[in-house]
Amino acid sequence: MISAKFILIVPLLFVWKTLSAAPPPPKALPPSSGDIAACKALAPRYDPSRSRVMLRLIDGPTRARLDFAAYDRNILMRVTEAKSLTSPSTRPRMSGLTFGGALSPGTIQGRLAETPLTEAEKRSPLALIPLLDYLALWNYDASEKILLAAARVSAERWNNSDSGRPLQRLVTGYLHTAAGGTTELWAEVEFQPAVDFIEGVTDADGDGSPEVYGRVNTAAVTPAVVSRIRKDYMGRVLSQKELGTYFFELTSSWYPSLYTFLLKPNEARPWPNAATEPEVRAEMGKFVLQHPTAIIRGKPHDNTLYNVFVVTRIDAPRSSIKNGAERKKK
């Protein structure tokens, strides 16, 4: 039998091996004031179900902020096919969800506002899919319990064993300081749109996918894991060189499934330009970015899509950047 450790580590090692022989990534440049203004102006227009461009402004390059910007409601990862599912003979209820003990019984809520998270904690979301990969590479043995909890959530098929992809996954996490000073991990479970048979589960945030929130089993959230997340994943600011490497590795890891390419400096500065698709230029309107930090072009389906990242405070002192990456939730 192939172990979960093998399944998690081997694909990541393959990406590392591929990158080790690759040319160095382009140097990340500080954005112009116009670039920042364009991000703020276009952000309210973003629709993950329709847009061709995802434009993200990242206030300080910590790994947590970069990963959240890359994975949260990304157009490259949207599900396009409408797959019908067979409903279980007994309709499950939201209040009874635990996914084999991955989530603590009695903690499931339909909205983020119904959890015990403080406003400050809500402003520091964690993209759990890349975070779990990060933890596996850091120390698999120390992270095994939280990795297995995430695997139990993804494993539930609701009697649809022929489903090729997980019907739900842990997507966003929040560290919460509970009574007595212990740290809990509260997580959003996002369901595929076709999972419409769980009583009480709705798409409260309006992103097209139903979701619930619950506390990850406390035994899976060990002090060692929490310390690593807070101090390195959320707390360490990447250098200018590390930032360039981050986007190069991200693009390479997405390539097999999303057919992604990192635009070269002469292709991305300025952007959009004459080589950019007319529909994409139309979506950007009057805005032209002079120094975007990174632009990833992908074509997972029929249309070419773009992820555009603008990172401020590149090479800023660590003490000047606080944890947090705000996303509005209902």
Provide a descriptive summary of the structure in words.
The protein folds into two domains: 125 residues, no CATH class; 140 residues, no CATH class. α5 runs antiparallel to α6. The radius of gyration is 20 Å and the shape is globular. A four-stranded mixed sheet has the order 1-8-7-6, sandwiched between helices. A four-stranded antiparallel sheet has the order 2-3-4-5. The protein has ten helices and eight strands. A hairpin with a 6-residue loop joins β7 and β8. 34% of the residues are buried. It starts with a helix and ends in an 18-residue tail after the last strand. About 3% of the residues have low confidence. The protein has 330 residues and is α+β, with helices and mostly antiparallel strands.
